[in-house]
Amino acid sequence: MKLSLFDYDLPPEMVAQFPARKRDESRLMVLDRSSTDTEILPFKRILDYPQKGDALVVNNTKVFKARLFGHRATGGKVEVFLVRKVDGKPDETWEALIKPSRRVHPGESIRFSSHSVNMAQHVEGGRWLVQFDSKSQREKTIAKDGHVPLPQYIKRDDITSDIRRYQTMFARKTHEGAVAAPTAGFHFTKPVIDKLKARGVKLIETTLHVGPGTFKPVQTDDIEQHYVDPEFAELKPQAARRINAVRAQGGKIYVVGTTSVRTLESAPFENNEIQPFAGFVDLYIKPGFKFKITDHLVTNFHLPKSSLMILVSAFAGREPILRAYQKAIEEQFRFYSYGDAMLIL
User: Fold this and answer.
1) Digits of tens for pLDDT over the chain (345 positions)?
2) 3-class DSSP state for residue 160?
3) How far apart are CA 84 and CA 173, in angstroms?
4) Residue 207 CA: distances (Å) to CA of 221, 233, 263, 290
5) Count of H helices and E strands in the chain?
6) CA angle, corner 199, sides to 193 and 204, nearest 5?
7) Whole-number Å distance between alpha carbons of 291 and 336
8) Alpha-carbon span 315 to 329, nearest angstrom
9) What's the pTM?
10) Is the four-CA dihedral 185, 188, 194, 197 of positive or negative sign?
11) Domains of the chain by range and CATH?
């Protein structure tokens, strides 16, 4: 399929630069796949949908302050964007994106306010392996000099409130490792979750550490030629058992976010049951994909011609998605990470 089939025109002013005043005061577009009808509601009305015996699957990854700004010995400014810790290398070796990459050299140190990082090895493009002296040094550097890794389409510097708002209520310190947020989870609040639980809806956690590849543009005219960057994901045994129990009893699986979809749909599937796993996943979901676990999807509105736009089109159909997006534009919805939500039934 041609990439142009997943394009749409979005007025720049509709890209949300700040979150809604309160998380659950965003808007919700409900798209029914069977009829392709849409309805516009306050997000709190999501309570109308999951019922007793259903499950809500969320991503519990936590975003860390991955963006660091330092200086070379010459005084030149350098951005070090930490991606993930690298196994099989000396302690505290990290993969990082460096800007400007072409000006730095292997063995060079980039200095922050109180510590430095060594440019160990150029990998490819703007990617490098960098080394901190110790875990404590790296943690202190991130705490003091790190910035919230807001997406590039948010045209402002991060502010104090982003530390809290560019994070879901499901994020766990023990699962810190994302450099981009699973933004569909932004809209949920404790009162909303408490009401769902009181109804008998099961909250099930999974993990996918969102990487910078989530914003990677599709640069091939034929979508089949694109690939997605691998990201670490985990489905624990208890979570797998609970999902299987819900499905066995006829309950529906409401999945919050494309990251949770890719985790569930990447998991081993045997005898009609999902299996626990942990490892890197690079599942690229495009039209024709057969969803095994995902019954309904809560998601945000995605960039045109992106792998996420292709994923939701695979789930709901390309034409219904494009019509829904056009209606969202007409109704002045807020788009992308800090924008409004969609529930696909």
Assistant:
1) 999 999 999 999 999 999 999 999 999 999 999 999 999 999 999 999 999 999 999 999 999 999 999 999 999 999 999 999 998 888 899 999 999 998 899 999 999 998 999 999 999 888 999 999 999 999 999 999 999 999 999 999 999 999 999 999 999 999 999 999 999 999 999 999 999 999 999 999 999 999 998 888 899 999 999 999 999 999 999 999 999 999 999 999 999 999 999 999 999 999 999 999 999 999 999 999 999 999 999 999 999 999 999 999 999 999 999 999 999 999 999 999 999 999 999
2) coil
3) 16
4) 32, 5, 7, 22
5) 7, 20
6) 50
7) 24
8) 21
9) 0.96
10) negative
11) 3-63+164-344 (3.40.1780.10), 67-147 (2.40.10.240)
8 A C-beta contact, residue 45 and residue 27? no
User: How many CB atoms are located within 10 Å of the residue 242 CB?
Assistant: 17
List the beta bridge partners of residue 94.
85, 130
From CA 130, how far away is CA 138, in angstroms rounded?
11
Q: Which two tokens stand for residue 214?
A: 């989530």
Structure-block tokens of residue 26: 């965003």
CA atoms of 112 and 140, how far apart (whole Å): 11
